[in-house]
Write a structure and sequence with these properties.
The chain is α+β, with helices and mostly antiparallel strands. It has two domains: 172 residues, no CATH class; 39 residues. It contains eight helices and six strands, in the order H-H-E-E-E-H-E-H-H-E-H-E-H-H. Strands 1, 2, 3, 4, 5 and 6 form a six-stranded antiparallel sheet that branches. Strand 2 and strand 3 form a beta hairpin. Helix 3 packs antiparallel against helix 6 and helix 4 runs antiparallel to helix 5. The longest helix has 21 residues. The two termini are 28 Å apart.
Length: 224
């Protein structure tokens, strides 16, 4: 009996097929095999769930609210997955659209003094963003663990089990005043997070097209 059988109690159905990727291609080096029901399936047979959390300013809360946040978050940590990680993604604010619009105003402006003011505004805003303004996104990441027993030894059953853990996290974080982002199409949301994480610079200007997940599933999909 192999390690996978010891951990999951039998073969995990849906893992039998491997990706055929060209050497040096994105599919070759990317450690992700598929995304199923909002769950990341890696090539080394791990199952990972990512939740995006919208932050609150703790210091703006009253002392009573701060105590409640500490209490409920500590309560969640007691029953949270053992290998829980908190990730923070930082990104420079994208000013391309703003600068493009200001350039149009400048070109249409007849008064030279107003044009100079617009250019000064562009320079000042660009300087502030380049040196001070950074956007933050907060994520909670956890994986499928041996004590988490799915109803079946299938990928979809494991995804359901991780989604149950995600619902538990939502309930406790809601008590802390934190909102967990609940996208209508979780697979698409996960793809977007991974794309922006891997391509931090280009993702600021080149967004994924709508329906990209459906396109990828049709061409490269593994699970029916």
């Amino acid at each position: 009996m192999g390690l996978k059988e010891l951990i999951f109690g039998g073969n995990v159905k849906g893992f039998e097929q491997d990706l055929n990727a060209y050497d040096g291609s994105v599919q070759d080096w990317l450690p992700i095999k598929n995304i199923v029901s909002g769950m990341i399936v890696t090539k080394d047979k791990r199952f990972v769930k990512i939740l995006e959390v919208l932050p609150v300013n703790f210091h703006l809360k009253t002392p009573h609210e701060q105590q409640n946040i500490i209490h409920y978050f500590a309560s969640y940590l007691k029953i949270a997955p053992n290998n829980l990680e908190i990730k923070i993604s930082t990104q420079r604010l994208d000013l391309e659209d703003y600068i493009t619009q200001m350039r149009k105003y400048s070109e249409a402006e007849e008064n030279e003094s107003c044009r100079e003011m617009i250019e000064d505004n562009i320079a000042e805003v660009s300087y502030i963003v380049a040196n001070e303004v950074i956007t933050h996104r907060f994520f909670i990441v956890f994986g499928y663990e041996p004590h988490m027993r799915g109803r079946k030894n299938t990928v979809h059953a494991i995804a359901d089990r991780l989604n149950e853990e995600a619902d538990t996290a939502r309930r406790y974080l809601d008590l802390c005043g934190l909102e967990v982002v609940d996208a209508e199409y979780m697979d698409n949301a996960v793809i977007e997070v991974l794309y922006e994480t891997i391509n931090k610079r280009s993702a600021r200007r080149s967004k994924l097209p709508d329906g990209v997940f459906d396109m990828m599933t049709t061409v490269h999909g593994i699970y029916e």
